[in-house]
Amino acid sequence: MKINKKKLTLRDVAKACGVSTTAVSFALNDKPSNLSPETKERIIRTAKEMNYQFNGVARALATRRTNIIGIIVPAITNAFFAESIRHLQVELSANGYEVILCNSDDKYENDLKYMRLLLSRQVDGLIISISAESMVDENWREIKAMLLENEVPHVLYDRYYPGDDAKVFVDNEQSAFELTNYLIANGHKKIGIITGPMNLNSAQGRFAGVKKALEAANLPFNDEQIYYGDYDIESGKSGAKKLLRNVSAIFAFNDLQAYGVIEVARDENLRIPDDVSLIGFDDIFYSSVLETKLTTVKQPIEVMCKATCDLLLKLIDNPRHQKSMSFPGTLIVRDSVKAK
Predict the structure, then answer these.
(1) What's the N-to-C CA distance of the chain in angstroms?
(2) From the CB of residue 116, how many other CB atoms can be counted at a distance below 10 Å?
(3) Do 101 and 147 have their domain in common?
(4) Residue from 268, 229, 236 nearest 250 by CA
(5) Residue 108 resides in a domain
(6) In angstroms, rounded to a whole number, what is the distance separating the alpha carbons of residues 152 and 277?
(7) What whole-number distance in Å separates Cα of residue 329 and Cα of residue 296?
(8) Looking at the structure, do residues 96 and 240 belong to the same domain, yes or no?
(9) Which of 236, 247, 262, 329 could bond 257 through an S-S bridge, CB–CB 3.0 to 4.6 Å?
(10) What residues make up the domain containing 30?
(11) Distance CA 98, CA 267 (A)
(12) 10 Å Cβ neighbour count for 219?
């Protein structure tokens, strides 16, 4: 079938099929109708053959929905968020939604900029993992005001500010408690930590879990054992330079930091786990293929992403469906911890 180069309309498809424009609209929108399955299939097939592009603007005006979800993440280069995006997109696509993805580069001003952009595109909902800068009280108040003013359904993923917003996250405190106890059970009495940004709930929870475990075991925990950093390799390197020769084990608050520790240990001719034990958090892909495979906590990313999408779609239908969902992490024991 020859494709007309001019922009096709519903009327063109209807004429080619010998049906009304209403019938074409019902078929392409998968709306209940009296159309026979054969006629509906013929309309859809003809539209594809004609390379008909459905008018999303017209659909949005008619349904007051765009079937588009906006996603904002702080660092697309972070393997945790990269994997999360993949699962979120697959799940949303399976439910008939397209995605507009924005990377805030962990900056408050970008959170605001991309929220304005997505709201201007009339997205049906937002999935947000806010930047560390946005966790400051006055910054979050501005973001929250924008969300409330525009009445946009939204779910906070992984990172969240205390409040009644719908959110999905891993139980950071309990996971860190279990990791620290694993080190203690292996005879480690002086444990160092490399934190993430301490205004993030994830870093706060992991810090609380470490402190709880060490206090329960009557083990020391002071500033000499702590390096306050960001969730990146460079913080792992800096933390390693402070901690490597002063502790028997290091708990890096994410796997990227642990990779930085490994690099510095190699440069200083220290062996993991013979000279110092090391654990991480996230269980991103590379942690299982390192020369010394990393003991860490696996976040149930796929399960969390499905729960996030399910929750958001329910919020789109019912804005009162506010819910917080916490998931346990799983201890993954590999080769980077040695008993003392």
Answers:
(1) 75
(2) 12
(3) yes
(4) 236
(5) yes
(6) 46
(7) 10
(8) no
(9) 236
(10) 10-54
(11) 46
(12) 16
- Single-letter residue type at 135: M
**Cα(298)–Cα(197) distance, integer angstroms:** 20
Answer yes or no: do 293 and 306 share one domain: no
Instruction: Count Cα neighbours of 181 within 13 Å in the Cβ-side half-sphere.
Output: 11
Instruction: Kindly report, residue by residue over 144-178, the tens digit of the pLDDT.
Output: 999 989 999 999 999 998 887 899 999 999 999 99
> How many structural domains are present in the chain?
3
Same domain, 177 and 139: no
Alpha-carbon gap, residue 142 to 287, rounded angstroms: 38
Cα–Cα distance measured from residue 281 to residue 175, given in angstroms and rounded to the nearest whole number? 9
For residue 333, tell me if it sits in a domain: no
Residue 75 is assigned to a structural domain of this protein: yes
SS3 state of residue 331: strand
Dump pLDDT digits (tens) for 81-91. Answer: 999 999 999 99
Question: Rounded to 10 degrees, what is the CA torsion of 30, 35, 41, 47?
Answer: -70
In a domain, 96, yes or no: yes
Q: How confident is the model at residue 3 (pLDDT cuts 50, 70, 90)?
A: very low
